[in-house]
Amino acid sequence: MFNRTLRRITAMNSIVFMLIFVFFGTVIYGYVSFRLFDKVDEAMFHMANNFAIANGRFVPASRNRALFDPRIFILLKDDQERVINLFPRDELYVEGLGELVSQLPPDYIQTKNFENHSYRILDIPFMYQDNILHTQQGPIAVKRVIAVSIVDSEVASLRDLLIIIVSGLVTGMLIIVLAGYYLARRSMIPIQASWEKQQQFVADASHELRTPLAVLKSNAELILRHPSHTVEEESIRVTNIIREVRRMTKLVVELLTLARSDANQLEVKLEPTSVNEIVEIIAEQFIPLAEMEGFDLKVNFSEKLDMMADKERLHQLLVILLDNAMKYTPAPGEIQLTATKQGNNVMIAVQDSGQGIPSEDLPRVFDRFYRGDKARSREKGGTGLGLSIAKWIVEQHGGKISVDSKLGVGSKFSIVFPAKK
Ligand code: ADP
């Protein structure tokens, strides 16, 4: 799939570059050609227009001789389309040129090749009143005047330019295709990585959903085997079903949170928040629970701690961390929740005296579906998504979360929230 997209992007880039190249090539060629022929055309036009025939001779009609060009020769066409050599008078410079000109359709200006030379030809009506040329064969009524100039050097320059443009286009295309492919490949790396991550996420999610579904199915089938049993008799299976449904509900809610956060559909609503208040609520909820499970939960917070935060998400964050501390600390144990100020930053830490995390696993604890001890996590109702959600919440507040842990001693999750977010 990525290879096809890669080829398509490369092709599209190359086509766009080629069109730009062709456009500029055409503009440059057209401009140079215009500049090269402009001078010749002007001189030809001047000579054809400003010379008159007086007493059978070709004479300047104006005093302006500046545009006189000895390269140009002038031919005349009479009313019977015969071509007469006029200037220079004596001989027809190029034999057969008269014939070529006589066959040309009258066109204002054109370039023609003849016997390995290129000629610029201007063909206009002859306007002077005294347009009778006296020849040995008698007077001739002149109808059109044709100026011809040899333009070999201009045509050669244009040919060279065309060769340069075309070879530039070919080399440029080659470079563009290679560079385009390389750049497209580079830009695809993060897209590919994120695609693969997403694929992995979907695969892991399906896998995680399969276990509770299998448990549900087997328990329901076992109940069906004894249709005469009472609910009381099947209470263990019914409890299993309810527990798995709870677990699945939690998993689905967490999956939805992460999927929405990936799609940027989930936003935190930042508002002025008293961290003290949230910590107090959490303490109220967790201290009795911790006591019941045999933990000593200590909650400390220093002076007034205010920050811009999403109250619900901040609460959710503390629940995840305290829940983990209790899940992975064998009772009796000690858990500490501390909220302090450092400079303008708000620091929150959750420390436990639990099993700890092996150092090689530390970089992965915030990964989705990562679970150090799958069986323990599952037994305690874990999904492997808690810390990924915690990290997302912290990052949405512009903060950072880190973990320090020693196997058998305990773990400490520390969060720094920047002051004015
Ligand atoms: P889970 O639902 O499995 O708890 P989490 O994302 O919350 O998923 O945590 C990922 C893993 O990190 C856990 O399975 C566990 O191995 C490890 N972990 C998290 N918190 C602690 C802690 N306080 N002490 C020891 N290990 C922890």
What does this structure look like?
With 421 residues, the chain is an alpha+beta fold. It is built from 8 helices and 15 strands. Strands 3, 4, 5, 6, 7 and 8 form a 6-stranded antiparallel sheet that branches. A 5-stranded mixed sheet has the order 10-12-13-15-14, covered by helices on one side. A hairpin with a 2-residue loop joins strand 12 (333-342) and strand 13 (345-352). Helix 1 (2-49) packs antiparallel against helix 3, helix 3 runs antiparallel to helix 4 and helix 5 (275-293) runs parallel beside helix 6 (311-327). It is rod-shaped and about 135 Å long. The model has no long low-confidence stretch (mean pLDDT 87). The structure holds adenosine-5'-diphosphate. The site of adenosine-5'-diphosphate has 23 residues, from helix 6 and helix 8.
Provide a concise account of the structure shown.
The protein is an alpha+beta fold and 421 residues long.
List keywords for this structure.
421 residues; 50% helix; 8 helices; 5-stranded mixed β-sheet; 15 strands; 24% strand; alpha+beta
- How many β-strand runs? 15
Overall geometric form: rod-shaped
Q: Which whole number gives the mean pLDDT?
A: 87
Ligand names: adenosine-5'-diphosphate
Q: What level of helicity do the residues show? A: 40-55%
Portion in beta strands:
15-25%
Radius of gyration: 46 Å
Query: Distance between termini?
Result: 41 Å
Structural class designation: alpha+beta
- Uncertain residue ranges: none
H/E topology pattern: HEEEEHEEEEHHEHEEHEEHHEE
Number of helices: 8
Major sheet attributes: 6 strands, antiparallel
